[in-house]
Amino acid sequence: QQGTETGDRGSSPELDPGKEQGSTEPGSGEAAGVPMQIAGGETYTPRTFLSANGRQTTSTLLKISVDDLAAAATQVANLAAGSGASLQLVDGQEQRFVYQLSVNKDKAGALLDSLSRVGRVTSRNDSKRDLSEQFSATLEQYQAKVAQANSTTEEAEKEKLLQEAKNLEQQLLAWEQESKEQTIVLWLEANKQ
């Protein structure tokens, strides 16, 4: 915890009377892990999200031409399993299979190299998308909804705000997971005879 404000006690567990319990500075990239007392006695503990910086999604489109589509599909399934990747058949036709793989970024390079050896690579496109701004803005909305729910005394409004906060939390969790993995869209196409 940073100690930059007057009255901030660093890592001391005491609360600053000038701050709401569980609040953080907007845009800090952190949600408090301190339970918040919700009106009506219900306690809601917001999920902790670390820095919003460096949140990128990485994806690769890889097209491969193969002689034996069924054998290549089996090889892809084995490679995915060996790297801990999830594998989903998105489209399967007589002459083409399209897969979506999700793999830990640390293992993505090795998996792509292995997949490239399944046949002849006809196309490859790598792309990155920075989610830092979206993540930070959504995190601020999430923190605001929790704070509003904490301060309201109207039961219906509290329920509405908590549902909105939980929806934002799910989006943040999805982006957090996406930023840890690389998505690979793999097209296996049978060689034209």
Short description:
The chain contains 4 helices and 7 strands. The protein has helices spanning 69-83, 105-116, 132-151, 155-180; strands spanning 36-37, 43-44, 56-66, 86-92, 96-104, 120-130, 181-190.
Detailed description of the structure:
This protein is of the alpha+beta class. Helix content is 38%, strand content 27%. It has four helices and seven strands. The protein has helices spanning 69-83, 105-116, 132-151, 155-180, and strands at 36-37, 43-44, 56-66, 86-92, 96-104, 120-130, 181-190. The strands form two sheets. It has a five-stranded mixed β-sheet with strand order 4-5-7-3-6. Strands 1-2 form a two-stranded antiparallel sheet. A hairpin with a 3-residue loop joins strand 4 (86-92) and strand 5. Helix 1 (69-83) packs antiparallel against helix 2 (105-116) and helix 3 packs antiparallel against helix 4 (155-180). It starts with 35 loop residues before the first strand and ends with a strand. The model is unreliable at 1-39 (pLDDT under 50).
